[in-house]
């Protein structure tokens, strides 16, 4: 009993220190838990990948290639393609084609007509024209009558002549490509299906240059 009385204050102090230490330790743990949670959430937010916008897909366009190329016709191209791309797709130019009249770097547009002229043949400086427009001087004024230049006219322009339909127009184009063009308007009678009577009807409306 004497021992207890003698050291009771020391025991009480030791118990107080232990309790205080436990309290401080518990508070520190709470503070650490409170700080770690936002950090973990923030890290997840940073690491979450952002949704990427898909690249814009090129649009399909349709181009009509005519004139001195190996494979004239209508070709499906992509927006952003240029004149030299569609000429390559048409097999390239023929011998005697005048590429100096072409703008090979011109951007293609849907419905465009690309006409590759031959040397000595008049053509547009760009070598291309939007749908519904001609890139060559296929008509000229002769008094009050219009004449069609059969050396440069497109199939559509040839079909404006009397008695010339789509099939006959393609025959005329094939003839001039195989023979280097028409030297005189009378050469039209060398085209299959065009005789003297047909030529007399065409004569006032055609010319060559």
TrEMBL record:
One of its GO terms (molecular function) is DNA binding. GO terms for biological process: DNA repair; protein secretion by the type II secretion system. Residues 156-175, 186-205 form the Helix-hairpin-helix DNA-binding motif class domain. Residues 123-132 have a biased composition (Low complexity). InterPro entries: Competence_ComE, Competence_ComEA_HhH, Endo/Exo/Phosphatase_dom_1, Hlx-hairpin-Hlx_DNA-bd_motif, RuvA_2-like, Soluble_ligand-bd. It comes from the Bacteria. GO terms for cellular component: type II protein secretion system complex. Residues 122-154 are annotated as: Disordered. SUPFAM superfamilies: RuvA domain 2-like (SSF47781). Residues 133-154 have a biased composition (Polar residues). This is Helix-hairpin-helix DNA-binding motif class 1 domain-containing protein.
């Amino acid at each position: 009993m004497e021992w207890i009385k003698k050291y009771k204050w020391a025991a009480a102090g030791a118990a107080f220190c232990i309790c205080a230490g436990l309290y401080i330790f518990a508070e520190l743990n709470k503070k650490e838990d409170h700080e770690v949670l936002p950090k973990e959430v923030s890290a997840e937010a940073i690491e979450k990948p952002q949704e990427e916008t898909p690249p814009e897909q090129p649009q399909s366009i349709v181009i009509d290639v005519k004139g001195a190329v190996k494979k004239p016709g209508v070709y499906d191209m992509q927006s952003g393609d240029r004149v030299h791309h569609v000429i390559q797709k048409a097999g390239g130019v023929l011998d005697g084609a005048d590429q100096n009249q072409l703008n090979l770097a011109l951007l293609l547009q849907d419905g465009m007509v690309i006409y590759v002229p031959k040397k000595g043949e008049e053509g547009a400086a760009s070598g291309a024209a939007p749908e519904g427009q001609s890139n060559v001087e296929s008509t000229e004024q002769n008094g009050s009558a219009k004449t069609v230049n059969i050396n440069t006219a497109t199939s559509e322009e040839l079909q404006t002549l009397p008695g010339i339909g789509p099939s006959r127009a393609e025959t005329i184009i094939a003839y001039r490509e195989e023979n280097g063009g028409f030297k005189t308007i009378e050469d039209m009678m060398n085209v299959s299906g065009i005789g003297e009577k047909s030529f007399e009807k065409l004569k006032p409306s055609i010319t060559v240059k």
